[in-house]
Design brief:
Na+/H+ antiporter subunit G, single chain, membrane, 128 residues, PhaG_MnhG_YufB, 75% helix, sodium:proton antiporter activity, mainly alpha
């Protein structure tokens, strides 16, 4: 039984570490600000979730009772990561950070466009 639990913990640690590594590589290699937001907010959140879940499984089996207080870490992370990414994206739009040509879905050009929900590219197409 102990070998099964250790195997589960090892798999969860490897999967969590892989997601975290992918997020870190994405943060370093993606070309612009808006694309770089996806690395830390998506895959790194899953990576931390896998690592904490491995910790819950290990200490629950080791101490013979459920160690559920560790679940607060991913709960707060899952709540705060999307909110902080949204705030960073809005700040990037407001500061007009430069975009890569590979970025799909351009942010609004002006505040008036942002209220209507369309981008400058869509506005130009409607006028043609």
């Amino acid at each position: 039984m102990q070998t099964v639990i250790e195997t589960i913990v090892c798999v969860l640690l490897l999967v969590g570490s892989l997601f975290t590594l992918i997020g870190a590589v994405g943060l370093a290699r993606l070309p612009d600000f808006f694309m770089r937001l996806h690395g830390p907010t998506k895959s790194t959140t899953l990576g931390v979730g896998g690592i904490v879940l491995a910790s819950v499984v290990y200490f629950s089996a080791h101490d013979n009772f459920a160690s559920l207080h560790e679940l607060l870490i991913p709960a707060f992370l899952f709540l705060t990561a999307p909110i902080s990414a949204h705030m960073l994206a809005k700040a990037g739009i407001q500061q007009r950070v430069p975009l890569s040509g590979a970025t799909r879905g351009r942010p609004p050009v002006t505040g008036a466009c942002a209220e209507r929900g369309d981008t400058g590219e869509l506005l130009e197409r409607r006028e043609e």
